C-alpha cells in the first residue's frame, strides 16, 4: 500500500505541472494589463508610460514568459505562491482564509447529493420497469439538467424574496448554507441516482444475490447487506469526480449567493487580472482534487477485499 501511495503521489507531479502551464498560459492570453488596471484604480487618468513601466518592472511583468513561469513553478514547489497584486498579501494566506467556506459548501453539497441520489437510485433499481422507476429517473434527469446559476436564482426568488425563509446572500451561518448547498448538490444527486440504479441492477444479477434470495432473506436485507456494498465501487469513483465538480461549481454558486469563498475570490481575481492569485488558487484546487481521488482509490480496498495494491 505504501509503495502504491508513493507511486500515485509521484504521478501527480506531471499533472500539476500541466495544470500550472495551462492556467499560466490562459491568464497571459487574456486581454488587459494588470499594471494598467492597478494604476487606473489608484491614480485615475494620471498614468504616464514611465510610471506604467516602473510598476510592470516591480511586478515582474517585463521578464520573459519562461522566466515568469519558472519563477511561479519553483515558488509553488516550495510552498510560496507569491503575493497578490490586488491585496498585496501572500496568496496562500488568502487561499487558506477562503478555503474553509468553499470546503464547507462542497461537503454540504456532496452530503445532500448522497442523501437525495442514493435512495432515489436504490428505489428505482428495486422497482425497475415500473412507474416508480420512471418517476425517480425523471426527477434525476431534471435535477442533473438544470443550470446551477438558474437554479440558484430560482431558489433565491422563491425562498428568500417570496417566502422570506432563508437569506439570499452571505455566509457564516447554517441558514446561509442551505440554498447554496442545495443548488450545488442537486446536479450531483441526479448523476449519482442514475449510476446507483444501473449499478444495483447489475449487482442484482450476480450469483451471490440469487443465493441470498434462495435462502429466503428479506429483499431489504439483501439489498442493504449484499447489494449496496458491491454496487458502491463505481459509485465511489463517481463521488470522487463529483467532489471535484462541486469544488469547481462553487465558482458559480458563491458568485450567485455572494458567499466569501475561494470560488468567488477566483472570479474577482480574474476580473482584476491578479495573475498570482488566479494561478495559486487553481493550482491549490487541483491539488485538493487529485488528493481526494487518491483517497477514493485507496478506499476501493476497503469495499472490495479482492483489490490489493503494491503487487
TrEMBL record:
Top-level taxon of the source organism: Bacteria
InterPro entries: BPD_transp_1_N, MetI-like, MetI-like_sf, Opp2B
Recorded GO MF terms: nickel cation transmembrane transporter activity
CDD domains to which the protein is assigned, alphabetical: TM_PBP2
SUPFAM superfamilies referenced in this protein's UniProt entry, alphabetically: MetI-like
Keyword entries, A-Z: Cell membrane, Ion transport, Membrane, Nickel, Nickel transport, Transmembrane, Transmembrane helix, Transport
Membrane-spanning segments: 12-30, 105-126, 147-166, 178-196, 231-252, 282-303
PROSITE patterns: ABC_TM1 (PS50928)
Membrane topology per record: Multi-pass membrane protein
Cellular location(s): Cell membrane
Domain ABC transmembrane type-1: 99-300
A GO cellular-component term linked to this record: plasma membrane
NCBIfam families associated with the record: Opp2B
Family, as annotated: Belongs to the binding-protein-dependent transport system permease family. OppBC subfamily.
Name this polypeptide is given: Oligopeptide transport system permease protein
Amino acid at each position: 500500500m505504501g509503495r502504491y501511495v508513493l507511486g500515485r503521489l509521484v504521478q501527480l507531479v506531471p499533472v500539476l505541472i500541466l495544470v500550472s502551464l495551462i492556467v499560466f498560459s490562459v491568464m497571459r492570453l487574456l486581454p488587459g494589463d494588470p499594471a494598467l488596471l492597478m494604476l487606473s484604480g489608484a491614480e485615475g487618468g494620471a498614468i504616464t508610460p514611465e510610471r506604467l513601466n516602473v510598476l510592470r518592472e516591480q511586478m515582474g511583468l517585463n521578464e520573459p514568459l519562461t522566466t515568469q513561469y519558472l519563477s511561479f513553478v519553483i515558488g509553488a514547489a516550495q510552498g510560496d505562491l507569491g503575493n497578490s497584486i490586488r491585496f498585496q498579501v501572500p496568496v496562500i494566506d488568502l487561499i487558506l482564509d477562503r478555503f474553509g467556506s468553499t470546503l464547507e459548501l462542497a461537503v454540504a453539497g456532496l452530503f445532500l447529493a448522497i442523501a437525495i441520489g442514493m435512495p432515489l437510485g436504490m428505489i428505482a433499481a428495486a422497482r425497475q420497469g415500473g412507474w416508480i422507476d420512471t418517476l425517480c429517473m425523471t426527477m434525476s434527469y431534471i435535477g442533473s439538467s438544470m443550470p446551477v446559476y438558474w437554479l440558484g436564482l430560482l431558489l433565491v426568488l422563491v425562498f428568500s424574496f417570496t417566502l422570506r425563509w432563508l437569506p439570499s446572500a452571505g455566509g457564516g451561518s447554517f441558514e446561509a448554507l442551505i440554498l447554496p448547498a442545495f443548488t450545488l448538490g442537486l446536479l450531483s444527486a441526479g448523476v449519482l441516482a442514475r449510476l446507483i440504479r444501473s449499478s444495483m441492477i447489475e449487482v442484482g444479477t450476480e450469483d451471490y444475490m440469487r443465493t441470498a434470495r434462495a435462502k429466503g432473506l428479506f429483499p431489504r436485507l439483501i439489498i442493504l447487506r449484499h447489494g449496496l456494498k458491491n454496487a458502491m465501487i463505481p459509485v465511489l469513483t463517481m463521488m470522487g469526480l463529483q467532489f471535484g465538480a462541486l469544488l469547481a461549481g462553487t465558482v458559480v454558486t458563491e458568485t450567485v449567493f455572494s458567499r466569501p469563498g475561494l470560488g468567488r475570490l477566483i472570479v474577482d481575481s480574474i476580473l482584476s487580472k491578479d495573475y498570482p492569485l488566479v494561478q495559486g488558487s487553481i493550482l491549490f484546487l487541483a491539488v485538493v482534487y487529485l488528493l481526494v481521488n487518491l483517497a477514493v482509490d485507496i478506499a476501493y480496498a476497503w469495499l472490495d477485499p479482492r483489490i490489493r495494491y503494491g503487487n
